[in-house]
């Protein structure tokens, strides 16, 4: 079984240039291959396979000599990613593959690690054409067990993600401990892929109730009256108190999550907001979702951990056990699937967020 380990790496300026250029070339190839598949389908009524595209690769490289600077294995992985994107689409797990811009093509994968070659120098990872890149952590893995190397650019930093072969026993605990997905719900503030639900604590609910009451009282006071001014002041104080309480609570949650995990995956709220209706948008604001993300992000960054935002499409409808789409509206609290899985709907979503995050990091489960 495979587990994943992640380290910050520190490429030199020159290496970083090369990495960016490699990303650019890989993305160009990805988009070219996608275009090729679309055109082929239009012309012949059937798509291209991975094998067919791989066979075209030598000709493409001849026509584009700049690709000499990228290992063939890395380029083959580009085509494999596209093939996976199509498979996910055909299996109804994702939308039709899209052309990628530089914000959505952020990693390269070396699918076959060679221990001596790639990890021969202590404290470095060697990538052909790029050089020995410094790993910013003590190496606590066995290089001979590393299967694939993935290098990812995220939020101004570079990471190396290794998939490592381990015995089955260890695998579960490591993955569980290291990576977490978080779904920001409506009934609870957050649900995690570990099955934890962070609900709105009762004292906070109480304060919020008080706040609402004070608001009602204010509307009953006569405009311009002294009492109204007094009530206004009281209300402002209450507002501040509730805001503080909520912030403290979110600090506590985010501290806990970051402390116990190395990769934190959350939904991209910008996308999520766009998908939802107005009523929901209001409760989003209430629950302080954006604030929780912000706290998670800066704490993760401070601790050298990975924080990643994923596309929330399908995360609540898809079964985290088997991949089926199980449609349910917001009132349905439990995810129940034909495959036998029956869990809290937000926890199911959180597990999907985790999977999507790992996939984006190039750690395919
Ligand atoms: Zn299922």
UniProtKB/TrEMBL annotation:
Domain Transposase putative helix-turn-helix: 9-46
InterPro entries found in the cross-reference section: Cas12f1-like_TNB, RNA-guided_DNA_endo/Transpos, Transposase, Transposase_put_HTH
Statement: the UniProt record of this protein carries the keyword Ubl conjugation: no
Coiled-coil intervals, chain numbering: none
GO process annotations (BP): DNA recombination; transposition
Keywords associated with the record: DNA recombination, DNA-binding, Metal-binding, Transposition, Zinc
A Pfam family the protein falls into: Cas12f1-like_TNB
GO molecular function, one term: metal ion binding
Residues of the Probable transposase IS891/IS1136/IS1341 domain: 164-277
Keyword Metal-binding: yes
Designated name of the protein: Transposase, IS605 OrfB family
């Amino acid at each position: 079984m495979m587990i994943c380990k992640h380290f910050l790496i520190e490429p030199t300026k020159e290496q970083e240039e090369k990495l960016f250029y490699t990303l650019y070339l890989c993305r160009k190839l990805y988009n070219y291959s996608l275009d090729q598949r679309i055109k082929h389908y239009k012309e012949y009524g059937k798509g291209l396979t991975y094998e067919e595209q791989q066979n075209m690769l030598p000709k493409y490289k001849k026509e584009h000599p700049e690709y000499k600077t990228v290992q063939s294995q890395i380029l083959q992985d580009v085509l494999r990613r596209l093939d996976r994107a199509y498979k996910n689409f055909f299996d109804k797990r994702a939308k039709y593959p899209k052309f990628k811009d530089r914000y959505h093509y952020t990693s390269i994968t070396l699918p076959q690690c060679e221990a001596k070659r790639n990890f021969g120098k202590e404290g470095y990872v060697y990538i052909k054409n790029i050089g020995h890149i410094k790993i910013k952590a003590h190496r606590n893995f066995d290089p001979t067990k590393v299967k694939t190397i993935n290098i990812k650019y995220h939020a101004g930093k570079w990471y190396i993600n290794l998939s490592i072969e381990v015995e089955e026993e260890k695998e579960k605990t490591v993955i569980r401990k290291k990576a977490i997905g978080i779904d920001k719900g409506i009934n609870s503030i957050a649900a995690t892929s570990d099955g934890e639900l962070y609900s709105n604590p009762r004292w906070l609910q109480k304060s919020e109730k008080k706040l609402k009451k004070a608001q009602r009282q204010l509307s009953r006071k006569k405009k311009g009256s002294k009492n109204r001014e007094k009530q206004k002041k009281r209300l402002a104080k209450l507002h501040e108190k509730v805001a503080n309480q909520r912030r403290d609570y979110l600090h506590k949650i985010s501290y806990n999550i970051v402390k116990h995990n190395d990769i934190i995956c959350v939904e991209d709220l910008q996308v999520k907001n766009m998908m939802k209706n107005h009523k929901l948008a209001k409760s989003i604001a209430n629950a302080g979702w954006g604030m929780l993300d912000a706290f998670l992000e800066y704490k993760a960054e401070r601790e050298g951990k990975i924080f990643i935002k994923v596309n929330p499409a399908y995360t609540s409808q898809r079964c985290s056990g088997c991949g089926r789409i199980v449609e349910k509206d917001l009132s349905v609290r439990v995810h129940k699937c034909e495959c036998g899985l029956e869990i809290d709907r937000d926890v199911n979503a959180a597990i999907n967020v985790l999977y999507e995050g790992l996939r984006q990091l190039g750690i395919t489960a």
